[in-house]
Amino acid sequence: MSDFTWAAKANDIPPGEGRVCEVNGVAIALFNVDGTFHALDNTCIHRGGPLGDGFCTDGTVTCPWHGWEYSMATGECESMPGQSVDTYEVRVDGEDIHVKL
Ligand code: FES
């Protein structure tokens, strides 16, 4: 079981945006939803698009490659019900965001 690992500075991810972060060699999509941070596996289950580079709106991120949609809170693929990407626990300590893989 791994501990929390630093992933990003909170002020580097404005509300309504996401970023791709590498944590212990794993690509993580980190999102700021109205001040609440969520972390998902960065790899879209369709063909591997980078979800952290996707378009964010109303709690949903849209994959930049072909438009599949995911809940940023649960990782559930709204375009393919019953499938999802992994989610990771997030801890915010001041300006520092940590993720637990
Ligand atoms: S790779 Fe994400 S929708 Fe195709």
How would you describe this structure to a colleague?
By secondary structure, this protein is mainly β. The chain has a single domain (4-100), classed as Rieske Iron-sulfur Protein. The protein contains no helices and nine strands. The strands form two sheets. It has a six-stranded antiparallel β-sheet, with no helix packed on it. A three-stranded antiparallel β-sheet has the order 5-6-7, with no helix packed on it. The mean pLDDT is 96. The structure holds FE2/S2 (inorganic) cluster (FES).
Q: What structural keywords apply?
A:
101 residues, mainly beta, Rieske Iron-sulfur Protein, six-stranded antiparallel β-sheet, three-stranded antiparallel β-sheet, 47% strand, globular, binds FE2/S2 (inorganic) cluster
Ligands in the model, by name, code or SMILES, are: FE2/S2 (inorganic) cluster
Distance between the termini: 8 Å
Low-confidence stretches: none
Q: What's the helix count?
A: 0
How can the largest sheet be summarized? 6 strands, antiparallel
- Which structural class do you get from the secondary structure elements? mainly beta
- Predict the CATH topology: Rieske Iron-sulfur Protein
| Domains, number | 1
Please state the overall shape, judged from the principal axes of the Cα atoms.
Answer: globular
CATH architecture field: 3-layer Sandwich
- Radius of gyration from CA coordinates: 12 Å
Strand order of the largest sheet: 1-9-8-4-3-2
Total number of beta strands: 9
Order of helices and strands: EEEEEEEEE
Beta-strand percent range: over 45%
CATH classification, class level: Mainly Beta
Supply the CATH superfamily name: Rieske [2Fe-2S] iron-sulphur domain
Mean pLDDT: 96
